[in-house]
Fold these 2 entries.
Entry 1:
Amino acid sequence: MKLFFSPDQMAHNPQKEISDGKLVDAVETPQRAQMVFEALKDVAGVTHADMQDFGRKPIEQVHDTGYIDFLHAFGDLWVEAGREGEGFPFVWPGRDFRTDKVPHHLDGKLGHYSFDAGTPLTGKTYGAAYASAQSALNGADALLRGDGAAFSLCRPPGHHAGKDYYGGYCFFNNAAIAAQYFRDQGAARVSIFDVDYHHGNGTQSIFYHRNDVQFLSVHADPLEEYPYFLGHADERGTGMGEGFNFNYPLPLGTEAPTFLHQIQQGLTEIDRYDPDYLVISLGVDFFEGDPISQFKLTHPDMTKVGALLRTNRPTLFVMEGGYAVGDLGRNVAAIIAGFLLD
Ligand code: OKP
Ligand code: ZN
């Protein structure tokens, strides 16, 4: 199994994030990727592979060009405005505000292109998010060339990012970019199964009206947990996409049996859909020791998660969340070792 990761992804190195009404140490750090990389390259059957640059085009197949340009220009805009530190939005369009005009002012742009204040944006973010998307694209390319599985160590993560907004530590939606790339290279159907603790609202929104990419997500109930405003079981897709979106919200405190059962349910729907490629949006924040999450899977449960995700379909793992930095590497390694068992 090839492992894709670029050191350029480390450049996004936020110091602080807004949480509980204060600036606190950022939890989505480059160290996360470092830990996962170190642990994964010791798993039997995993090899770090060289990366190609697929350019900006496959990112533009998913994201709005105005949005991409804004992330690209942000560092300069921030400095020109005479600001220091990291960028945070503080104003958003309310329910009946206009969203058809993009404000000229930096604070207006920040609100236009985001949905939360918990995601620090810096001058180095664009380059790292671009490299993270390239890791996803290299993984997709490996499968298109015949590999049975690949691991894209995407970081910053992607599943909260929509077509034209960032949030939840996510800027480019790596899983969506990979899925779209499979389609653009001739795949008829792609499934994305999101097993991160948080609902993959961005991925859901990107494909909500489409039947060529099936989206499924197991996550904490949004009535109780971030991202709060999307991820309910009655969100089933719209128009042509109706019946191609599946949400499995679970209570806080969920343990392995319930979690694994819901993954099994999702896999049944994937079988019914019969995709050419399966993308797993893999967050390991369902771990009991995760500092921002409230599911209770243990380290030994990780092997079971990986083993359950073995189907006979080409499978691309795309890294999402997981913040228990000390355990992150061994948890991801256990999932992949479970997946690779014969
Ligand atoms: C990103 B991913 C804690 C704030 C947490 C956002 C969580 C984003 C999770 N006080 N805010 O899905 O792992
Ligand atoms: Zn998460």
Note: The longest strand covers residues 213-220.
Entry 2:
Amino acid sequence: TLSDRLTSVLKNLRGKGRLSDADIDATAREIRIALLEADVALPVVRSFIAGVKERAKSAEVSQALNPAQQVIKIVNEELVGILGGETRRLEYAKTPPTVIMLAGLQGSGKTTLAGKLARWLQGQGHTPMLVAADLQRPNAVNQLQVVGERAGVAVFAPEPGNGVGDPVDVSRRSIDEARRAQHDIVIVDTAGRLGIDQEMMQQAADIRDAVKPDETLFVVDAMIGQDAVSTAEAFRDGVGFSGVVLTKLDGDARGGAALSVRQVTGQPIMFASNGEKLEDFDVFHPDRMASRILGMGDMLTLIEQAEQAFDAEQAEAAAQKLGAGQLTLEDFLEQMQAVRRMGPLQNLLGMLPGAGQMKDQLANFDEKHLDRVQAIIRGMTPAEREDPKIINASRRQRIARGSGVAISEINDLVNRFFEARKMMQQMAGQFGGFGGGGNRK
Ligand code: GDP
Ligand code: MG
């Protein structure tokens, strides 16, 4: 995954004050591979990477994130931006019924989607009706009727025994029926072919002209991969559409089709299908899709949490003191609280790339120990936190009583604190300034 590969790039970048062109190029190469692996079409990858590089080069150095995290953040923001930023809502007709037409290749999931969409709309107080305008396959009408029954919505279909009906005629009549029976939304399920086909495209265009849809949704299988671009272009030119629905997201496709279709047609992705059941359906979430395409949702969560919890000024001050061997227990407490605000340490460490081998140690890690350490420090006066040397026997007794721990635990903490501080001082001496100059100018 990108996360694994970026680990090495991360190593190289970590600790540098700002992004060099070489750093950005190295990271861009990894992102390029990740996008191609996610089946994003090549021209889309190219223009995307160019945009990211541009932004990375002019970006201000973040106080909260290391350079690699910062690049990942930029990549993610660009992805979310292209995928739609805020999700667009359905446009409803001023006078009902609102007509929603579904178009897409055979097997893309139109009929399934019709049921999901109808039920979703019903849940919002609408009274949708499904229209069987796929009269190509013998079973198609029946399939829609089953879907309609399951969703609990009306289905308009050609009368049985009349031979094969004309899909354009059925679609036209469905609008009158919707008005009569007061359905405020009509969802027209059309036929598809296995490949792009002129006859099918013409039929879809004829249905479009007959029902004048308020929304035409292009339904596309997320597993389609690189073919997404040519298919989307064919439907854009043949029928035209106002929105995209991505299906089969429950599969293992990384979802590059989403970025390709969005970038090439400019139309928003509005809904996502992720299963065969009626409830496997949601409005499209650009942020979720972005992390899926990047394949590093955990890393993004970590970045977000780091930004929230990390107070750069505080860290800077602590680092300065550390370098001068002046770390106090108060600093220690603050740092510990900042880290813990990001969530349980087990989760936190588990999210880091390469944490796999640490699983066992993580499982044995006792968070309660940190609670006790915090309790001890909180039981100290400011003067004691500032200069732990003054903590004599009677003070230890008072702190133990106040924080409900044994005196031996306080001894432990104070001793380890002195040891750690001594070690820092030695390191500072050895390396000529520890911590203060690392991440920042
Ligand atoms: P249509 O030809 O475009 O109408 O496609 P269908 O709605 O008939 O779906 C084709 C097949 O894909 C059916 O077996 C559906 O059950 C299945 N399908 C549709 N949407 C999804 C989805 O989101 N996830 C999964 N796993 N299967 C789906
Ligand atoms: Mg169908």
Note: Residues 407-431 form the longest helix (25 residues).
